[in-house]
Design brief:
Layout lengths: L3 E3 L7 H4 L1 E7 L3 H20 L11 H5 L5 E8 L16 E8 L1 H10 L12 E8 L5 E2 L8 H13 L4 E4 L1 H5 L13 H8 L6 E10 L4 E10 L2 E10 L1 H16 L7
Parallel strand pairs: 5-7, 5-8
Antiparallel strand pairs: 1-7, 2-4, 3-4, 5-6, 8-9, 9-10
Helix pairs in contact: 2-4, 5-8
Length: 261
C-alpha cells in the first residue's frame, strides 16, 4: 500500500482563497500593477476552481484595472539575508508581491463570468506522479531526495490552486517494484485503497515524459470522479506548468466546473 504523507500545504481557508502572489522586479508601480493583474487571474481561478479561466481574454478588462479589486499588498524580498551583489543598486531586487483581494468584488466578477466561489469542502487530493526523464523514471515522493524539486513545485501548485495534497513515501513506492506505468490504468477501487487510509479523499495519477524534440514534458493526468475516468494532456511544458495544470484540472473537476480535457 502506498503511504501518502501530507505536504506542508495548509488547507485553504476563506481568507487564503482571496490572496495570491507573484514574482516582480523591484517595488515600482509599473511592475506592481502588472503583478496585480497576474494575481487577479490566479485568485479568480483559486476561488472558483475553474482553471479554464487561465488566459481567458474576458479577464483582460478586469486585469487592466486590477488595482480596483485589491484591499492590501505586501512584498517579500527573495534575497532577504543574502549579501548584496556587486551590481546591486544598478538593478532592482526580486520580490514576491503578495496581494489580498476584495471578496465581494471577486465574487461579483466571477458571477459576470458565469461562475461562483467554491467555498464548500475541498477534498484532500492524493497525487501519484511519475517522472520519466531520459533513461530513467521515478515517482515523486514526500521524502525522496531525487524528487526534491518536483515535490516543492507540487506544493507551490497546490497552494496556488487552493488545494491540499498528499504524496507517497519512498518505502511504499519501493513496494510497487517499479511498475509505475500500471498506475495510469489501475482501477478506481485500487487507487482508492492506496490513499484512503492516509486521508486522501480523491486521487490523481500523472505521468510526465521528457521530449527532446519539444524541449518539454509530455504530460497525462487521470482523475476518477462521479463514476467517470477523466484524462487530460499537455505537451512541451515545464514540470511547474504541468503540475499547475494537473492540480488545477483536478480542482476544476472537483468544484463542478467541467472536464479539464
Amino acid at each position: 500500500m502506498l503511504l501518502l504523507i501530507p505536504l506542508n500545504v495548509a488547507t485553504a481557508c476563506a481568507d487564503d482563497l482571496y490572496r495570491a502572489q507573484t514574482a516582480v522586479t523591484g517595488q515600482g508601480e509599473p511592475n506592481r500593477l502588472i503583478g496585480f493583474g497576474a494575481c487577479l487571474e490566479d485568485v479568480l481561478i483559486k476561488v472558483s476552481g475553474a482553471v479554464k479561466l487561465a488566459g481567458d481574454p474576458r479577464l483582460d478588462p478586469a486585469k487592466a484595472r486590477a488595482a480596483d479589486f485589491v484591499t492590501a499588498f505586501d512584498y517579500h524580498d527573495q534575497m532577504s539575508g543574502k549579501p548584496k551583489r556587486d551590481e546591486q543598486g544598478t538593478r532592482d531586487r526580486p520580490y514576491d508581491l503578495i496581494v489580498d483581494f476584495d471578496k465581494p468584488k471577486i465574487d461579483q466578477l466571477l458571477s459576470t463570468l458565469g461562475l461562483k466561489p467554491w467555498l464548500s469542502h475541498r477534498p484532500t487530493l492524493g497525487v501519484i506522479v511519475t517522472m520519466v526523464p531520459a533513461g530513467r523514471h521515478f515517482i515523486v515522493t514526500a521524502d525522496g531526495k531525487q524528487s526534491d524539486l518536483q515535490r516543492d513545485s507540487l506544493g507551490i501548485a497546490a497552494s496556488r490552486r487552493g488545494m491540499t495534497i498528499v504524496l507517497p513515501d519512498e518505502a511504499s513506492v519501493a513496494k510497487t517494484n517499479g511498475n509505475d506505468a500500471a498506475l495510469m490504468t489501475a482501477p478506481t477501487e485500487t487507487l482508492a485503497q492506496l490513499v484512503a487510509a492516509q486521508g486522501a479523499e480523491a486521487v490523481m495519477v500523472g505521468r510526465l515524459v521528457w521530449d527532446d524534440d519539444e524541449l518539454g514534458w509530455v504530460t497525462e493526468w487521470r482523475l476518477d470522479a462521479d463514476g467517470q475516468s477523466h484524462r487530460w494532456k499537455m505537451r512541451g511544458v515545464t514540470f511547474d506548468g504541468a503540475f499547475r495544470r494537473g492540480i488545477g484540472g483536478a480542482a476544476q473537476l472537483l468544484s463542478g466546473n467541467g472536464d479539464p480535457g
